[in-house]
Amino acid sequence: MNKPLILVVEDDGTVRNLITTTLKSNEYRYITASDGESAIAAASTQQPDIVLLDLGLPDIDGVEVIKRIRCWSQMPIIVISARSEDADKIAALDAGADDYLTKPFSVAELLARLRVTQRRLTALESKTGESIFHNGSLTIDYGAGCAYLDGNALKLTPTEYKLLCLLAKDVGKVLTHTYLTDKIWGSCWESDMASLRVHMATLRKKLEKDPDTQYIQTHIGIGYRMLKL
Ligand code: CA
Questions:
Q1: 95 to each of 11, 99, 158, 160, 178, how far by Cα in Å?
Q2: Distance from the alpha carbon of residue 55 to the mean position of ligand 1, in angstroms
Q3: What distance in angstroms lies between residue 169's CA and the mean position of ligand 1's atoms?
Q4: What is the pTM of this model?
Q5: CA 49 to centroid of ligand 1, rounded, Å
Q6: pLDDT of 77-121, one tens digit each?
Q7: Element (H, E) at 21
Q8: What does the pLDDT look like over 20-41, one tens digit per residue?
Q9: Is 96 helix (H, G, I), strand (E, B) or coil?
Q10: CA of 175 to the centre of ligand 1 (A)
Q11: Nearest residue to 73 (alpha-carbon basis) of 111, 115, 118, 42
Q12: Is residue 192 within 8 Å of 106, Cβ to Cβ?
């Protein structure tokens, strides 16, 4: 497999250098952009494997960059931003970002996020067209509409099954509360958020009987992600 090509979008030269130095010494290839418009242009002409995107850019906002790229591409986008408010994270994730890293970040953390995103890419590529999903001891047979744990059928309610499928479809990616309630109930009222928490809790109880195996990770105030085991 070729070395992955990373598009680094960052207007701060010091941070950009830190990131590109890290990428270089860890066998990644990279290209850079220092504003939103050139980032969008580079994304379309160079087709990078992953985009590392700063939100505070001199021309257009990073969230706008995500929305514009998402019009034509599902390439993974990891946001790296000094904005640490949940609302900013949610806006970026809702626009279609795959992950979020808050500045200041450690080099080790950046590399870990890149690895997770690459694994997710590989998983996506291998599951294209498949009607059976595997992750650890979990199996979902989409055709039969059933999920199994260690080969035993899980007794799930229709809502729990839907939730499980949504998380599995985007395994490794954080899905926001709004995204999930909208997919399940077509709305995102406060009451839907409360229902989501209840259904997620009952789903996890059935799925995570073994306390050492965690399938679903909670991101407080933001959403949930299924971990790739
Ligand atoms: Ca910036």
A1: 21, 11, 27, 25, 11
A2: 6
A3: 32
A4: 0.67
A5: 22
A6: 999 998 878 888 889 999 989 989 998 999 999 999 999 888 877
A7: helix 13-25
A8: 999 999 999 999 999 999 999 9
A9: coil
A10: 25
A11: 42
A12: no
